[in-house]
Amino acid sequence: MNPRLAIVGAGGHGREILDIVRSADPDGRRWSLVGIVADTVPDASSLEALDVLWLGTVDEAIRGARFDIALIAVGEWRSRQTVATRLGRAGLGSPSVVHARAYVGSDSRLGDGCAVWPGAVVSTHVRLGRHSHVNQSASISHDVTLDDFVTVAPHATLCGSVRVGTGAWVGAGACVLEGRTLGEGSVVGAGAVVTRDVAPWTVVSGVPARVTRVLDVARGQP
Question: Which domains does the chain have, with CATH numbers?
């Protein structure tokens, strides 16, 4: 019997990952998609349009043993991390999922809970950490390493041998040049070009990218 898969999150991110799940396993051979889990009641019309059930809040769905594995469809990385901890305590795993129109190199490795959107390219010898999200048409070149809970936004480019720390966010259309390092919790603004390493818990933007803010480490916020 296939494991029962739930998607945690009912917003735009959740709807996109639902599409990825269906694209990656159209015949239901890997899992049985049972519904969406969310701590707030989703819009009924949205669920009906997507032909998917709401299984209740995270705690309700865990207590009721309504799923076996889950994909966390939450954009903000600290929230994603919190949900992952709750699932882990309950002994519930997370598969990785790749849209049928994405490319992942044969020697690249995806950690548990990763999601790769349509049009994304993940090249050779890439390592994606747990619960990292590579959005539509993003490009990740050879020998890149993402730590856990990283988000690569649409059309962003990571050139060869880039290293990205836990929880970092690479904004839409940004470019990180070869060999650069993005520290834990750092944020690269949309359209920025990163030519130097980015320190942990800092925000950079512009061309070339420069520090514009320092984040509160405890919250990961300005």
Answer: 4-89 (3.40.50.20), 97-214 (2.160.10.10)
